[in-house]
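Chain A, query sequence.
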Amino acid sequence: MSVCINKIIEQYGGKRPIEGLDIAIVPGVLQNINVDPKELQEELVKNYPIRKQGDEIVQGAVQWVHGSHNALRYRGNELKREKIWLQDGKPDEKGYAYYYYTGVQWEVVPAQTDWAECPEIDRIATEIARFNTRVGAKPSNQAIITRYKNQCHGIGAHYDKPKSIAPSDESGTSLITVIKMGEVGRKFNIYDLDEKLLWSEVVAPGDAIVMTLEANLKTKHEVPIEEDAAIGDSGSIVFRSISSILTYAKVMSERDASRKRKRKAQEDKEDKEEKKQIVEAKPVASCASWRCPKPGSGSKD
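Chain A, predicted structure.
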């Protein structure tokens, strides 16, 4: 078992929800630093704009990106959640802490900005840095804030992809720290990789689920959609140690190339549709027009 997780349990009153896995539930993380989970989410919703379908993502600004936005859609489908991306440092100076996940689009990467621009989270990030140092974890350099507006919002069973997350090594344990916020708790499910349910409980606002990267890769986790329930506004802040740092120029180049590919695909689609309409609109020659000429009716040499 991870020494880091053991320290979290000993020093912060956490518990292992599943025996044999390096996952800890830590109560009152936000309350212990005098942050009200409900007020925190209300402030984030009130203070920062939501970019919906058709809105421009503004570089260098703290902003929510709505699940309907093209940059956040997955295979064309609207996601049932809203997100803010933050990191330690300005992207144009330190580069982007680029977290790879299935379906990530280059268009959304510039939505990430310095958490110093978001005082509500900057304060919490400072405390997480102290927490990581105390328990022997790697520094966290990225935070993704997710809002689940009601019971129709959630995220399916998945594990965080390791491609861009720093692995645990002698310099420290790589932690994924999920801090719940909002007015209500949400059910949090943990499965094995065959999706056999291992643990399911409502995690209260202010509590944290902390897991090593390696425990994450042995399990799947989920915030289930519960359409038959009446659930209020909730959300989470997820801190990770990202190893993939992309330069500002690289991200802009990839974003512009992605835009060019999408425009070309759209033009090809429209061209194909136009040709189809022309073919469908073209009159079909009658059978009479294809009859052979009567003898003697043709031209004479």
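The longest helix spans residues 248-281. The chain has a mean pLDDT of 92.
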